[in-house]
Amino acid sequence: MEIVEGFGIGVVVILGALLTLFVRRALVTRSGGIIRLSVRVSTMLDGRGWSPGFGRFAGDELRWYRMFSFAIRPKRVLSRKGLAVERRRLPEGQERFSMPADWVILRCTSNHAPVEIAMARSTVTGFLSWLEAAPPGAVSPRMASQDWPAA
User: Residues 80-91: pLDDT tens digits?
Assistant: First the structure.
């Protein structure tokens, strides 16, 4: 009898965790503007340290949420004002195994700190448009390099 009770409690805990993940995602994605986005959280090893998630555009911010997290708050916030794209490249080496084949990696600076983000090739155009756009009277952030290799 104790084994059955323990098993039942385990099943309830797992179902509760899954329900919490789905509710969290529904709360974050409820207003649209969501893209699949991976952020490199560690540069200790070449080609490693990528964390999958999704980004949400909210005004002048790109809010990044980890895919497998219980947190409702974004893990990282990139402000359009301090964000500039340095270069873009295709996944290399180990990176090809950790992300889909049609993704592009953008090396950016966010308030003078480097950050690497990866997204689908079809999403890059929208991201760059959002980055260049600015409200009337505001200064649009500069793109650091316009001679990117064709991806």
Answer: 888 889 999 999
What secondary structure does DSSP assign to the chain, as a single string? -HHHHHHHHHHHHHHHHHHHHHHHHHHHHTT--EEEEEEE---SSTT--EEEEEEEEETTEEEEEESS---SS-SEEEEGGGEEEEEEE---TTHHHHS-TTEEEEEEEETTEEEEEEEEHHHHHHHHHHHH---TTSPPPPPS-S-PPP-
What the block records as the tokens of 22 is 């789905």
What is the dihedral sign for C-alpha 108, 109, 110, 113? positive
36: which 2 tokens?
Answer: 């699949």
CATH number of 32-132: 3.40.630.30, 3.40.50.620, 2.40.50.100, 2.30.29.30?
2.30.29.30
Residue type, 86: E
Domain ranges of the chain: 32-132
The per-residue pLDDT for range 53-112, each reduced to its tens digit, is 989 888 888 888 888 777 778 888 988 888 889 999 999 888 888 888 899 999 998 887
